[in-house]
Amino acid sequence: MEKPLDWYAEAKSVIESEISLLNHISISSLIASDGVYLNIETLEKQQFCVLLNKQGFRVVAKAFDQDTNNTQLCYETHFALLSNISKGYCQRFNELVAFKLNEVARSCKDTDNQIAKS
């Protein structure tokens, strides 16, 4: 028998990974029967309420703590959703990846220099 997902743990994981790439992200006060709602404010200051459930991530309102939209468009990942609703997210995400890659490159160069001196 499949163990039911802990939607709040899933939401907290998304929040932890994305908090630095958005103006705001938190668990909504709305209650979902099988899932959890997230309040998201993009870097462009656009607000969304997003339902996270077994189908994926779905924007349900363009305001916090509301479910007014009957759209069926679901995203498999939070990366896909956020990339679609926020150009600022894409830019900041790319900057973060570039920064991390540069750190790795510097670390490799430092290691190579230490080996060459040995």
TrEMBL record:
A molecular function GO annotation: protein kinase A binding
Gene3D superfamilies, alphabetized: Hypothetical protein (hspc210)
Entry similarity comment: Belongs to the GSKIP family.
The protein, known as: GSK3B-interacting protein-like
UniProt-listed GO biological process terms: regulation of canonical Wnt signaling pathway
InterPro entries cross-referenced by the UniProt entry: GSKIP, GSKIP_dom, GSKIP_dom_sf
Gene Ontology CC: one annotated term: cytoplasm
Domain GSKIP: from-to ranges: 9-103
